[in-house]
Amino acid sequence: MPREIADREAVIQAISKLDIIVELLEEKDGKKKYGTDLEVIVYGRDYGNGKKVGPYIRLLVYGSGEEIMRQGEWGGNTFYLAVDGTLDVYIRSESGGAPQSAGQKIGQLHSGTCFGEMSVLAGVERNATIAVPQGSEATVLEITRPALRLLRKLPKFGMAIDSTYRGHGFSRVLEEVRQVTGNVFGAEMIAKLGAAAEFKVYGKHHVLCQEGKPVDKVILIKSGWVRRVRGISLDPETSGVAMGAGAAIGVDFLGAGNCIGLDGLEATSAWGYSASLMARSEVLEVSIPKLQVEPELREKILRTFGDFSRADDRSPLGLESLADLRVVAATEEEITTGLVDGANLLVMDMDLCVRCGNCSLACHKVHGQSRLLRRGIHIQRPFQPGKPATQHVLSPQVCMHCKDPECLTGCPTGAIFRDPQGQVDIDPHTCIGCFDCATQCPYDAITMVPRNSEPPVPAPFFTKLRHAFRLSTPSPPPGITEADDMVAIKCNLCEATPLNPAGAKGKAYSCEENCPTGALVRVNPQEYFGEIEKTLGIVFRDSTHAVGRNIHRSDPLAKMWHVGGVLLTLLLGGLAVWALTRYGFDTILFGTWVNVRWATGILGFVCVAAVMTYPLRKQIYRRRAGALRYWMLAHVYIGVIAAVILLLHSGSHTGSWLTTALYFSFIAGIASGVFGIASYIIAPRILTSIEGNPLLIEDLVARRAELQESLKAVMEQSDEGLRGQIETKVIPRFRSRSYVLRQFFIRQDLKTLLAAARGSISDDTARVTEKERRTLLMDAVETAVTLSRVEALIALHRLLKIWIPPHVISTALMIALMLVHIAQVIFFHPR
To answer: Cα(208)–Cα(275) distance, rounded to whole angstroms?
Structure first.
């Protein structure tokens, strides 16, 4: 365990020894040139009312054999500067243990060396273990991420960091190329490749090449996304290019691991397309003129780079079918919205979502505030190229644990951090409620809430850190009111909750666990979106910490429930029919007091009792009790078995008024349940086909009120003649119930529906000569049509819930009557 030197003057003295950051102490005209930055980094600054930032630096002394950082951990929060002593560098295996025994020593670090910065800069795992040699000690400066943006102002530090980043990226590219090509490139060839290539980092919209210009370089994409277009002039900032693609205009997208420009190695040629970047990207550019003087290296690049790259320079990039266009359009949307760069993405299949809100409720139950808002990014994509089936995916406003999170970069206190498993979390004790993260998050996934008297449970990483360094848990400063003391919250993947206790197998998420239909799932987006996976080469695939199975693609356990449920229903139903056929109702079986009526009655009662465990499971949110979707399947199939057995049990005569009431309540429960299942299957699919971007019922109700006011305003602005025309021609046609119901069967998007409506009254519109009156008439038509569309969507939302009250009432009545019936039967049973 390291020992901290708390004396700030000792920290200043340590800085003065380090050439890379000594400029922080530089003076100009008798004042510290970077005085404000020095104060925040070394001493911290108190802005009053408990709002403090910094210090961002600690002076630590590590003893003999102690590890400073460990290979494989996500260390995106701190980096280090060696002050005194030497440090050993080990490349370790995954087995753990002492650094000397767990890996190979590959070198030493000396005073003034910066290390660990790549994890902060690139958001990657530590690539080596750094430890103090046995029998000695070392002093290091531990610097937290918020200091990075201040230290970058120092010329030497800024240049050193940029050089380190480029050098590390360059060597990593060369090493991965060597590995993926089966060591085709030996040490000598790698050295020659390094001499001919440059590692570049480009911003979004940078143009890599232009159609028709000579191919003068081979470009290997290490990270980021490239859009290639053919047949049109390149505008790198334009989106939606895919929608105009066809036989003449070609569009495609390339991700990490792809290589372009290989044609230029075979012969002098021109680019057959233009290519621009869709996000910040890292590439390796190999000069073709330099390769021409190295024929052996040129041949190896030509032969091997094409094997792991999926890009084909000879591809015409043209689209031959509508299915191809849908795939390309979906790919562009997924890249431009940034979904593909999430490390752990929550997606909702809206064809399965029954709009029950149980996911948000579960999040609220677990965390005290819901961190999931059912609004977000909507993607429409084909399930498979060449097939008409379309999937509607919503990525709700919830943290994606980005690989390069803007919230983490801008946090002034380091309260937002990346834990050793790679997920992004917030330490509520060090959050000062500055709102920076909430305003910087491009997905609105961070919410500011009043700090409670009992702060939220901190992440285990910070709990362990405080314990290791004997740090006390800070308390909220006195005198801060709820109005001005805010804390940032966001999805933390249910870490430090009863859903994920120590030693639990696998991760569990409250939203996914409590979805009754399996609409929600946490995924690796580059695997979930098959069209994206096809754009990636073999190398440079980013690691994520998404866990679990993509149940939208395959859910073996659900299939087992379906198969088992059908077989068990047929088996028990067939067995009951056989017993009734052979023995009748009253024949005593096997020398006991049990007959077939008793046997079917007992089995039916057991099934009803099993069915009623589902509503009990729905009340469990804060601990693991099995995914609700499987409980729903069990509820349905056991209910079907109960219906079959009890209907056979009742026979053709219901008997007394009590059993007749029981019989009809049972039928009502079955009928309402069947209606509910049908609505769960049909209504969401109609909703997704006509609503476009998914909307909440609250949004639709508010929109309806707004449209009603708009239609009323149009009527008030119209003269008597135009008002009469609207009342006799527009309202009856576009505000009728039949027009609302018609939208369920003839599914059209709103634009198509509006165009058809305008066309249907074109003759009436032509008779209105004044421009102002004609505009009012068209406004009335469009408002009425849109209002009917909104009412159709509201009706579908309500259809998903309308069956629940009668189902609950009939089921409750059935259970009450069943208990009375059982008591009656037992009391009057002949002894």
So the answer is: 5
Asked if residue 256 lies in contact with residue 224, where contact means CB atoms within 8 angstroms, the answer is yes
The helix/strand count (H/E) of the chain reads as 31, 29
The residues, any chain, with a CB within 8 Å of residue 253's CB and separated by 6 or more, are 225, 226, 227, 228, 278, 328, 331, 332, 335, 535
Q: Which amino acid is at 263?
A: D
| Separation of alpha carbons 785 and 773, rounded Å | 18
Looking up tokens 């910065």 gives 117
Q: Is the peptide bond before 55 cis (omega within 30 degrees of 0)?
A: yes
Give the pairing of strands 424-426 and 416-418: antiparallel
Q: Which of 33, 24, 50, 31 is nearest to 148 (CA)?
A: 24
pLDDT score, position 315: 56
> For position 453, what pLDDT does the model report?
44
Axis-axis angle for helices 628-650, 556-583 (nearest 10):
10
Among 25, 152, 17, 16, which residue's Cα sits nearest to residue 79?
152
pLDDT of residue 467: 42
> Rounded to 5 degrees, what angle do the CA atoms 809, 812, 814 make?
105
Determine what percent of the chain is predicted with pLDDT higher than 90.
45
pLDDT digits 0-9 by tens, 751-784: 999 999 999 888 888 888 788 888 999 999 999 9
- Read out DSSP for 85-133? S-EEEEEE-TT-S-HHHHEEEEEEE-TT-EESHHHHHH--B--SEEEPP
Question: Nearest-5° angle of CA 457, CA 462, CA 468?
Answer: 130
Tell me the whole-structure pTM to 2 decimals: 0.83
Contacts with 158 (C-beta within 8 Å, 6 or more apart), sequence order: 151, 152
CA distance 765 to 815: 61
Q: How far is CA 218 from the centre of its chain?
A: 34
Rounded-to-10 torsion of CA 670, 674, 677, 682: -160
